[in-house]
Design brief:
The chain is of the alpha/beta class. The chain is about 40% helix and about 15% strand. The protein has eleven helices and eight strands. It has helices spanning about 40-45, 45-50, 75-90, 100-115, 135-145, 150-160, 165-180, 185-190, 210-220, 245-260, 265-275; strands at about 5, 15-20, 30, 55-60, 95-100, 120-125, 195-205, 225-230. It has an eight-stranded mixed sheet, with helices on both faces. The two termini are about 35 Å apart. The model is unreliable at about 260-270 and about 270-278 (pLDDT under 50).
Length: about 280
């Protein structure tokens, strides 16, 4: 199957793209980007690395990239429901899920609300309580204006939306989502997740490593991975670093987790995993 793209038929149509080829029995890997991002800016390095051996489904959430801003505020729960509708419409589930930052919070909600749609879950650099962020994060966000949005995010959004005002609307959606729409996720919700889960954070992340460890301790049988780096560089996010090294070092761990149930590794995946031994 070649690359395909389109929009869901929900009340807020979500843009999606298929990439890659399946080389075995693994389900597709759903990629959920972080705040301020597009498919290209968040996954521009990861998709080429995995596409030779994995079917990938990348989406753009409310107000991001090619998806419209909608008429109401964004929410993690609402985004999870929109993704559940998309997966059902595409008959794509169950899928493996990789959610980064705000996308990780959406992934938690998706796995908790729709366990039959999620086989394995990777939650990357995502808080589940407000006290999980580093000192100064909330004050900085409260005082932030659109002028503070880094230029790479503006440029990436304009490149695909074609609308100079789209990035500004995205900024305000994301800011309000975090400031007023993010409440602590009840322990009962994270404890209800049944999918095997890997919680990932960087040692210089905006999410405290201890907070990632707490999340991993609350999800039954979850694993924890703390990697050297900052918020996003270890996934190859284009706006966070020009160095592909952090992604190259982290990717074998992600592949190992997604295939550790005994699935046969492809030659491409085996080559990526060899980075751990050299």
């Amino acid at each position: 199957m070649g690359d395909e793209r389109g929009y869901s038929s929900s009340s807020l149509p979500l843009y999606y793209e298929w990439h890659g080829e399946s080389s075995g029995s693994e389900p597709p890997l759903l990629l959920i980007h972080g705040g301020g991002s597009t498919i290209e800016s968040n996954w521009g390095r990861l998709i080429p690395a995995l596409a030779p051996s994995r079917r990938l489904l990348a989406v753009e959430l409310q107000g991001h990239g090619r998806t419209g801003s909608g008429v109401g505020p964004a929410s993690f729960e609402g985004s999870a429901e929109g993704l559940a509708e998309l997966l059902t419409e595409l008959a794509a589930g169950p899928v493996d899920v990789l959610g980064f930052s705000n996308g990780g919070q959406v992934a938690v909600q998706l796995a908790a609300r729709h366990p039959k749609l999620v086989r394995r879950l990777v939650v990357a650099s995502a808080p589940f309580r407000r006290d999980g962020m580093i000192d100064g994060f909330w004050e900085g966000l409260a005082n932030a204006t659109y002028a503070d949005l880094p230029e790479p995010y503006r440029a990436a959004d304009l490149a695909v939306s074609g609308d100079p005002g789209h990035a500004e609307r995205m900024f305000h959606l994301d800011r309000e989502l975090m400031l007023t729409g993010f409440t602590d996720v009840p322990i009962s919700v994270v404890a209800s997740i049944t999918a095997p889960t890997l919680v990932v954070a960087a040692d210089r992340d905006v999410v405290r490593p201890a907070h990632a460890a707490l999340l991993a301790s609350l999800i039954p049988h979850a694993r924890l991975l703390i990697v050297p780096g900052n918020h996003g560089d270890y996934l190859g996010e284009l706006a966070s670093a020009d160095d592909p090294g952090p992604l190259e070092r982290t990717l074998p761990f992600l592949i190992g987790f997604l295939t550790e149930d005994g699935a046969q590794l492809s030659d491409h995946e085996r080559e990526l995993q060899s980075h751990l031994r050299h």
